[in-house]
Amino acid sequence: MSEPSGSPPPAAPPATPRLPAFFRTINPDESAPVVNRDDLTQGTIARFISTREVESMGRKSRLHVFYARGGEGVPFAVWGSAELDSQLRKLRGGAGIVFIRYNGKQPHPSMPGRTVHKWTVQEAVGAKLEHVRKVRAPFADQEAALDKVIAEAVERDRARLATSGTDEPPPPDDDDLPF
Questions:
Q1: How distant is the alpha carbon of residue 142 from its chain centre?
Q2: How many whole angstroms separate alpha carbon 16 and alpha carbon 29?
Q3: Domain membership flag for residue 87
Q4: Is 108 helix (H, G, I), strand (E, B) or coil?
Q5: Is the N end or the C end of the chain the one with fewer CB atoms within 10 Å?
Q6: β strands within 89-165, DSSP E
């Protein structure tokens, strides 16, 4: 059926104004396989994405999500610790390219008999993507090892979902958070 000849054509929706470059898209949370802290003892360059609080078995923990390979790889997550949580909160802009390395458990400096998970977190401030790629070159072996660890974590998650149906793995028993 045709429109009467006297009616105006339908109005086009108004064009969306273009935002300036300093606006950053916020992506929704992704499902990211949790890797063990010990798998990061060699360190890796990754893009820090977000932190979310998870309550499991009556206690709260933080899960930190990263993209492997300096932000060009797949997502992975690491359970937080008091020190890691603190260091990631200090990132400029809240997210960015970081070098992250797990240094193991060490005695707590002021509380005898307690231990703390120690981390090295270094932020790439103002680095362009081509600079980050050059810096990542010597870390090719660590990136390949992390890719393998992430693939294994994905398989563990699939098996856990198939048997128990729970979304998140429980936090590690040796969590040093004061919750």
A1: 17
A2: 26
A3: yes
A4: coil
A5: N
A6: 96-107, 115-123
* Number of C-beta neighbours around residue 161 at 10 A: 11
Task: Please give the pLDDT value at position 21.
Answer: 76
Structural domain including 43 reads: 37-161
In a domain, 125, yes or no: yes
The answer to whether 124 and 96 are in contact (CB under 8 A) is yes
- Specify if 64 maps to a domain: yes
pTM here is 0.74
**75 versus 1: which is more confidently predicted?**
75
> Rounded to whole angstroms, how far apart are CA atoms 179 and 173?
13
pLDDT tens-digit profile of 55-76? 766 778 888 999 999 988 899 9
Q: Is the pLDDT of residue 177 over 70?
A: no
Do 73 and 129 contact (CB within 8 A), yes or no?
no
Distance CA 54, CA 60 (A): 6
Q: Cα(69)–Cα(147) distance, rounded to whole angstroms?
A: 9
Residue-averaged pLDDT of the chain = 82
Q: Are 142 and 47 in contact (CB under 8 A)?
A: no
Both structure tokens of 97: 């390219």
Assigned domain for 43 exists: yes
User: What is the number of structural domains in the chain?
Assistant: 1
